[in-house]
Amino acid sequence: MMNISSIAEDNIRNDLQHTCILIYKMQILSMYHLLWTSYWQSGLGQLIKQTPEQQQQQN
Q1: I need a labelling partner for 30 at 20 to 30 A (CA). Which of 19, 22, 23, 50 fits?
Q2: Domain ranges (residues) in the chain
Q3: Separation in Å, CA 47 to CA 9, 26, 54, 57
Q4: How far apart are CA 53 and CA 11, in angstroms?
Protein backbone atom coordinates (compact mmCIF):
# COMPACT_ATOMS: atom_id res chain seq x y z
CA MET A 1 0.00 0.00 0.00
CA MET A 2 1.38 3.37 -1.01
CA ASN A 3 1.31 6.28 1.37
CA ILE A 4 0.88 9.95 0.49
CA SER A 5 4.60 10.77 0.59
CA SER A 6 5.51 8.01 -1.87
CA ILE A 7 2.74 9.17 -4.22
CA ALA A 8 4.06 12.73 -4.01
CA GLU A 9 7.61 11.52 -4.70
CA ASP A 10 6.37 9.57 -7.73
CA ASN A 11 4.57 12.67 -9.03
CA ILE A 12 7.69 14.79 -8.56
CA ARG A 13 9.83 12.14 -10.26
CA ASN A 14 7.39 11.98 -13.19
CA ASP A 15 7.32 15.77 -13.48
CA LEU A 16 11.12 15.91 -13.49
CA GLN A 17 11.30 13.16 -16.08
CA HIS A 18 8.85 14.97 -18.36
CA THR A 19 10.74 18.23 -17.89
CA CYS A 20 14.04 16.56 -18.80
CA ILE A 21 12.49 15.01 -21.90
CA LEU A 22 11.11 18.39 -23.00
CA ILE A 23 14.50 20.07 -22.49
CA TYR A 24 16.18 17.30 -24.49
CA LYS A 25 13.67 17.66 -27.33
CA MET A 26 14.16 21.43 -27.40
CA GLN A 27 17.93 20.97 -27.64
CA ILE A 28 17.55 18.44 -30.45
CA LEU A 29 15.22 20.76 -32.37
CA SER A 30 17.66 23.63 -31.92
CA MET A 31 20.49 21.47 -33.26
CA TYR A 32 18.40 20.35 -36.26
CA HIS A 33 17.52 23.98 -36.99
CA LEU A 34 21.20 24.96 -36.94
CA LEU A 35 22.16 22.04 -39.18
CA TRP A 36 19.39 22.69 -41.72
CA THR A 37 20.18 26.41 -41.75
CA SER A 38 23.81 25.60 -42.52
CA TYR A 39 22.72 23.13 -45.21
CA TRP A 40 20.41 25.73 -46.77
CA GLN A 41 23.06 28.45 -46.70
CA SER A 42 25.53 26.05 -48.28
CA GLY A 43 23.09 25.35 -51.10
CA LEU A 44 22.66 29.08 -51.70
CA GLY A 45 26.41 29.70 -51.62
CA GLN A 46 26.09 31.79 -48.46
CA LEU A 47 27.81 29.47 -46.03
CA ILE A 48 31.10 31.38 -46.04
CA LYS A 49 30.48 35.07 -45.54
CA GLN A 50 32.80 37.40 -47.37
CA THR A 51 34.63 40.20 -45.64
CA PRO A 52 34.15 43.75 -46.98
CA GLU A 53 37.66 43.58 -48.47
CA GLN A 54 36.78 40.44 -50.42
CA GLN A 55 33.59 42.05 -51.70
CA GLN A 56 35.51 45.12 -52.91
CA GLN A 57 38.03 42.93 -54.72
CA GLN A 58 35.23 41.25 -56.67
CA ASN A 59 33.82 44.61 -57.83
Answers
A1: 50
A2: 1-38
A3: 49, 24, 15, 19
A4: 60
